Structures are given as C-alpha cells and as structure tokens.
Amino acid sequence: MTIIVSAVGSAFLTLFGAPLLAGAVACALTFLFQWPRSRWEGWARFISTFCMAAIGGPFLVVALHSWWPGLFASARSVISLYGVDPALGIAFVAVPLMVMAGLPAWWLLGGLVRWLDRRKDKDLGEIVRDAADVVKEVRTKL
User: CB–CB of 103/30 below 8 Å?
Assistant: First the structure.
C-alpha cells in the first residue's frame, strides 16, 4: 500500500510541483512591484499566473529543448554532481522558464483590472469605444 501511495505522491509532485513552484515564485516576484488592491484580485491574479505557468511553461521548455538541447544535457550533468537522479536536471531549466511564462499573466490581468476599474461607471459600449481609442492612440505612436 505504501508503494502505491508513494508512486501517486511522486507522480502528483512531478506533474504539478514545478508549475506550482513556478507560479508561486512568479507571484512572489510580482508582489514586490504591483500589490493587488483586494483579496479577490490577488487570488485571481495568483490563479491566472499559476495557470499560465502550467500551460505556457511547458511550451517554452519544449521550444528551448528543440533549439538548445545541449543545455538540458548539461543540466543533467550538473545535477548528477550533487548525487541526484539526472532526470531531475530538467528542473534546473524548466522552473525558471515556467516562472517567466507566468509573469505576463500577472501583469496583464492587473493592468486590465485597473483599466476597467477606472471605467466602472460606463456601460459596455463606452468601454469598447475607450478600448478602440487606446488602440488608435497606440497605433499612431508606433
């Protein structure tokens, strides 16, 4: 029975450990610069950061592995120097990439919440017109 529980725990940690760690690190980094205004906003931004790290992070890992496979081989060599299973060497590379994948979600959701908060007394049509004006303004500056 302990072997089954251990295997399930190990599989759970393998599948969700790195994205959870990456999402937590990304949130901790962004709390230093952009603190949420409410508890609801904080949780929404944390969950979006975690999801983006869990979804976008593996795509970044695969893209980097196809572009630079020697980096992953080197990570396996380095972690084996510590006496750890070389298969965990991917964590040296994957976790920072997952953190980088989670950061944009925090910033984008925070900016969207603040932009909509400034327009809380407007209806949907006025908000869409404001968004179109912002897009026009950005296009003229480029």
Answer: yes
